[in-house]
Fold these 3 entries.
Entry 1:
Amino acid sequence: MKHSIFFPNHTSWLNALKISIPGYLCGVGVFAFSFWQYAFISIVLATAQGTNPLGILIIDLLALLAGIAWYFLLILIFSLLLRLLWSNPPEWLKPSMHWFRVLYDFNVIIFATLPIFLIFLAGVAANESIDLMKSASYQLHLEKVLLNFSWLWVIAAAYLYQIEFVVKNRRKVKKC
C-alpha cells in the first residue's frame, strides 16, 4: 500500500497528540523556541557584524540541553501520572521510554516549533518598533504566539511523523 507524505495517517496524528501533552503543552516548546531564536541571532550576528557568535551558540546549546532534560523529566512524570490514574493506561497515550524514541520525539518537538518561530519572526519584522531585548511585553507576546499557534505545532508534528511512517513502509516494501 502506497502512503502519501501529504496526508498524515491516523498513527501520525496520534503520535503528534501523544507528545503534545508532555512536550509542547508543558513548556518544552519554549526551549525549542529559544533554540531557534538563539540560532537565528547567532546567524544574524555572524553575517551582519562579522563577529564570532560562539557565546550565543553556547547559550543555544544550553537551551537545547535544558529542553531535553526538561522533556525527560516530563516524560517520567507523565508516565507516572498515567500509572497512578489508570490501572491499565491506553496504549496510544503511553509515552515511549526507549531512549532513542525519546530523542526522536524531542527532535520532532524542536522541528515542529520552527514554523511557529518563522511566523513570530515575520511578525517582529513587520513590527520593527519592538526592541526584543528591552521590551517587557516581549515575553508575553512570545507566550501568546506559542499558545495561539499550538494547532500549527500539532500539524507540523503530524507531518514529521508521517515522513517517518512513509520511510518505514517503503523499507518494508523493499524487503519483501
Entry 2:
Amino acid sequence: MARRSNKRAALVKAAREAFHELGPKRSTLSVIAKRSGVPLGNVYYYFKAKDDLVAAVIADLRAETEARLGACGEEEGALAQLAAYLAWKGERAETKARFGCPRAALAQELGRDQSRLADDARALLGVQQAWLSERFGEGERAAQLAEELHCAVLGALAAAQASADADLLRRRLARLESWVAARV
C-alpha cells in the first residue's frame, strides 16, 4: 500500500512541476509519467483521467497553501504574519520569475474553461485573500486592503515573470512590507 501511495505522490509532484512549467494543457501524461518515474501505462491505475490528476494537484496545492498560511499565522501579531506571507511569496524567486506563480498560472489556464476544476483553482487564490483579510481586521476596509495586497503580490509575480527578473520580485515584495507596515 505504501508503494502505491509513493507512486501516486510522485505523479502528483511531477504533475505540479509540469503544470507550473508548461501549463496543464501542454503537460501530457507521457511527460508527467517520465518525470515521476512511473511507467505511462501505470498512470491510469492511479488516475482514471487527466482531470483526476489535475484535481489531485489542486488538492495538493490547497493543502500546501493552508499549511503555509497556518505557519505564517503562528507569528506574533498581524504585521509579522503578513511579513511571513510576503517572505513565502518570495521563496524560489528565480523559478517564479521564470514560470510565474503556480497557483495563479493554474487558475488562469484552467479559467479559460468553465469547469469545476477552474473553480477549484480559483478557490486557491480565494483562500489566500481570505487569510489576508483576517490579518487586516474586520469589515470592508480589511477586505479592500487584503484585495490590494493580494493583487499587488500577484502583479509583482506577473511582472517578474514577464521580465524574467527575480530581483524585481524581491524588490516589490520588500516595498510591500513597508506598505503593510503603514496599514496594520
Entry 3:
Amino acid sequence: MRPSQSEDGRFYFMPIIRITNIKKNLGGKQVLKGISLDVHKGEKLVVIGRSGCGKSVLLKHMVGLMQPDSGTVEVYKQDLSGLGETGLAAIRLKIGFLFQGAALFDSMTVGENVSLPLIENFSFTQREIARKVEEKLELVGLPGIQRLKPSELSGGMRKRVGLARAIITEPEVIFYDEPTTGLDPIMSDAIDNLVNSLAERLQVTSVVVTHDMDSVKKVADRVIMLHEGHIFFDDAPDRLFQSDNHVVRNFVNRSSVDDDEIVHEMEDLAVKAGQPDSTKPR
C-alpha cells in the first residue's frame, strides 16, 4: 500500500472505495449480509472465499453493475446508487475490469477488442488509438498481435488481451475476477507477475478475486475472506497462512475433512434424496 502524507507529517491510507453495511439477496438467498470494507489507494486487495460466497457479487457492487438492497457503495466519495448513467460512466472511466473469461469479442481482432473502450468513450484519431493499443499490448507482453483473432490465442494470451483492454483508458483502479482460473501454473505465475508489474508501473489500486493461494502469496498486500455473507478474515497474507481458525485453515489447505459446510450440504442432499446420511457414522 502506498500511504499519503498529511500536513503534520503523519502517514495515512486513503480509501477510494468505501462499502458500508451492504446487503444483497439473489434468488431468495442472502448472499451479502452486511459487508463493510474500505479499499485504499494503491493497495493490492485480494478477495477469497468458497464458490458462491459472494466474491464476484461484491466486485460487481464496486463498479455499479449491481445495486445493494441496503447499505452504500461510495467510489471517490460518490454514492453509486445516487448516480445516473452519466455519473456511473464517468466513474467507470477510472476503472479497468478483467473478466473471468476475458470476455473478448470473437468476431473482432485483438486490436479492435483492445481499442473498443477508446472508441466508445473518447475522440482519439485512428493513429492515436493504434499507438495506444500497441503500447498496452507491449505492456502485457504481447506486442504485434493486433490482427489476430481471439480464437487464435491460448487462454493465457486471451487473459492478457483482456487486461490490455482493461488498462487502455489508463484507469486508477483495476478489478481482476479470477485472473488465473483455467491456466497452467507457469501462465498463472506470469499473470501474477503482470498484476504486480502493472500495480507498480501504473500506480493503480488492484482488487483481485481468486481461489489461487499461490496468487494470494505473490500478489496480496491485504486479504479478505468472505464466509456466510460476512467478511470472516481481514489481514495481511502471512496472517492468513498462519491462522489456526478451522474455517480459514480448511480453505487455505484445500481440506474438506471436518469442514462444517460440506457436512451440512451432504446432510441436506441426503434428506432431499430420502437416503441415510453417509457422512454420519453407522
